[in-house]
Amino acid sequence: MSRQLTPGYGVDRVLSWLDDRLSGGREVHGGGWRVTTFLLSPAVLLLGLFGVFPIVATLVLSLYDLRYGEGTFSGLANYREAIHSPAFWNSVKVTVYYLVGVVPVSIVLGFVIAWGLMNITRGRALFRTLYFLPYITSAYAAALVWRALLNPQGGLLNALLAVFHLPAQQWLLEPRGVLHVISGGYVAADVGPSLALCCVVAFDIWHGLGFVVVILLAGLSSIPRELEDAARIDGAGVLQVIRHVTLPLLTPTLYFLLLVGTIKGFQAFNSFYALTQSGGNTLGTTENLVIYLFANFYDNGRWGYGAAIATLLLVAIVGLALVQARFARRWVHYG
Amino acid sequence: MGQLANIHGIGGWAFLRGTKGTPTSKARCDDFRPRESRTADPIEYGVRHQKLHVRFDTRRAPFVRQEWPAPCAVPPRRFCEWSRIILCPLVVVFMAVSGCNPAAPSSDGFEPINETQVVFWDRQTTETAKLLEKITAEFNASNDGMAVAIETTGNYGEIYRKVMASIQARRLPAMAVSYESMTAQYAASGAVVGLDALVADPERGISSADLEDFFPAVLGSNYYADYDGQLLSFPFSKSVLMLYANHRVLKEAGIDGPPKTWDEFLEQCRSIKAKTGKFAYAISVDCSTISGMIFSMGGELIVDGQFQYDQPAAIQAFTLLETLINEDLAYQIQARTYDDEVAFARDDVAFTTRTSAGSANMALAMGGKNDSWSLNPIPQSDPAHPATILFGPNITLFTTGAAQEQVAWDFVRHFTSTPVMTEWVLATGYLPIRKSVANDGRIQAYWAAWPSNRAPYDCLETARTEPNLLRWQEIRSSVERAESAVLAKLKTGKEAALELQQEAQGLLDRTK
Amino acid sequence: MKRSLSYIALTVFAGIMVYPFVWMAGTAFKTLPESMGGDLNPFPATWQWGNIATTLAEAPFGQYFFNSILVSTIVGLSVVITSLMAGYAFGRLRFRGQGLLFGLVLATMMVPFEITFIPNFVLITRFGWYNSYAALIVPWCANAFGVFLVRQAFLSLPNAYYDAAVMDGCGHLRFLRHIGASMVKPTLVTVFLFAFLGSYNALLWPLVVTSDPSLRVVQVGLASFLMDSGVRLNLLMCASSFVIVPSMVLFLFTQRYFEESALSSGLKE
Description:
The structure holds 3 protein chains of 3 kinds. By secondary structure, chain A is mainly α.
């Protein structure tokens, strides 16, 4: 260890020279402002330029009625319009349905698979790779396959339904609510998420599952085996072990997945775009916030309005992340 | 043109002038702070420590934990010390980038994105891209000015976004392919060259005789009513909406030939369903197809700023869709797929409506068996006065300075000249956009080889275009929504048409 | 018994996960009409090996691969360095305004790319970086996700090592290089993997900031098969199949670390 730390050559020399320049007195856990600044500068400058600057630009743009540098200042008119627009609230609803569908299901499903993987001895690496494959497959190619599977004419799913003598479905083209379809028309058609939206949700669960499985697998493998064994010796069943030992110890991982899943879920765009042509064919039932702002920003050339939606989206994400952080204190067990 | 430039007004990003991106130092965000810095309870600490200890012991033997650090052992330095260092340069960069921008040209005109070449952003791929390269090379060899460079820039949506971003950056290519609604958007930023003056130029313009050589329908959509009727783009690759008919399926149903009228079309669809049990028609939800149907039913889309979706022709078009779907004569294919082509090639449907430019692909899918299918004019209400819809992009020139604009214009003239267009038409299957091309011997021979080769051209005289309004893109989505509602059996054709009229007119009036 | 049930269930699941991938690889060797048929059997009637040559001839894929791998690797390494430095500062050092600054960093993760891309494009052209490697690389050299992961990793590490190093008269930077980096190595590998994948799979940004074919990346090359009025589906799938090979290889080599690092990422708030 100490051999490594003696001033060496090349990079080490530069670093120790820098260390001397930057040290503001010997401090143990807090660095001096010089070294703090040095460490933060690259990331903060880059993120400031290419991350915060666009946010500021978007905020400013949302106060104008047309484009950057064009049109006139219109104050909060864009926000007012958004709040009074049914299409906007519809896209909020779609986003919420999507989040509620994708995040919990992929975590639960991911947990089941990861749990299964923990209980096998051979081929874990192979399975892990297989489950990760969709994650690195291009969304365009994956969407093509899914559209073939969900094709109302000759797709696999309708063929399966036919085996069970069930009526064929329109899948990605179906704007009716999934409850309406399942209940055979008992529930009104415009209640709940549309069948098309459910197909998009299923696609994204499939596409992101590999990530969830790998993270959960890691979380599970870090739980000391002795704890579970001890619980079992005490006579606990499998479910009880999961409920009282595994899950509590896994809560930090679950929280991490929840947070990342929420952020990603709010920003979902590619799957909607690739599967449903921006929601036009499904009467807006697959038009989430990003698709809605995209349509306004680009297709309709209403940049100020699009920017206002983007700002509201940002506020929603940050708000939800903060709420989750607050609630996390109640259920997440650290250490 | 002056009017266009005026709309632009302030320079790009000027709105950020004076904005300081410094966050206030008072705001705090405790939730992102590490937990232990808020925890004061030593007992809780101990418990946590112990658990961590176990974990690290089992995983990484050499790491022996000794003690958890005391929270915030050192009083934090004052905010302004580091903020001066980190945020000041940031603010400077913000200001430099956003506000004062000495490099940017004054309000009129944009800089060329490439000083030494005349850049053309295009969408062609595969064989047609290679042909375009060849045409460009020939042009460059014969031209002693700057060279034209083709840059393949993705699909139309991607080209649109790239041009929009470039307008904001005030650096543009000399020209790009574009649909009318795209050109209208670009022109709103004052980025588009008005072509009237260039056309009128006695030496390097287009003589009125030559201008008359272009089909009126082809040239017509490039005059923009939103911009005082100026010529803002120039036609390029054109095609029309056609009815593709599968003769194997027709024969199966005992039908001799494709329908001439919409009544006949519906009748044939019914007898195909009755005799073969197959769907007759695959529907792709598309605004342009609806527009074509309305035209062919003797209707208009817009008259004197009033949409015509509540008129009989539009209601008839939507009602036809309703009938087709209710009687199970047709089905809807998934968006942006070529499922209809596939079904057609597999003899699963008798009809599909598509652009004539798709015929080369269809020929591939049909395995070259030309006797089993044909391209036909779409059915009409009045075959004596037929109408269909014209598709296809144009070229838009950008205001990048006289030198670039002149070469770009020379290129457009070269590209649309009779011999080059002839070559282009023969290789790509796009329509001849001028009459003299149609008279070329090679084109005539190509037409004689198979009647379907000629059919699209015969529709050209009567082809019409969608309005090139600034808001047209938005209205397109409304039309497609109305169509989807009918196909999902959520609305009748009439309801959908009437509601569409309200919505479209509302959108149009709002922008006035 | 229970174990074999697990195997069966996992294999069935794996089949569902992998099927589209097999379909993609199989379609790559079909004829065009066969590929367009929407046939669920992934395997072609006769294997069209010639598709590979046709695909490669359509665009300079060699150059594209070189660019993609070069750009993604530099982005990955840069993200590792910037995240290591910033993550260390956020996780280990204490300073006033830390929470606010970290919040701002996280906020950059929360704005959709569709909106940020125009301001960023304007910046790039202002800097004169249009059509250069810098435009492909620099904007992505730091990301909030990386900073976040590294910070979590440092939060979960014991301080004892740092104390020992300080006794030896070691400053922050040399500590970071010799001890800090190796302690959070799994996290750094993960950060590298995701930064690499993000950069490698990006389509719109490379398409917009470059125009020179010698600067284009593989994802842009894929667009060569999407035509104005059709798609060469078999060739597109062929190209897609070999485009994901580098990602797969990278995952195979890094998955061991990946598992270790997720362990620490979840540990701390």
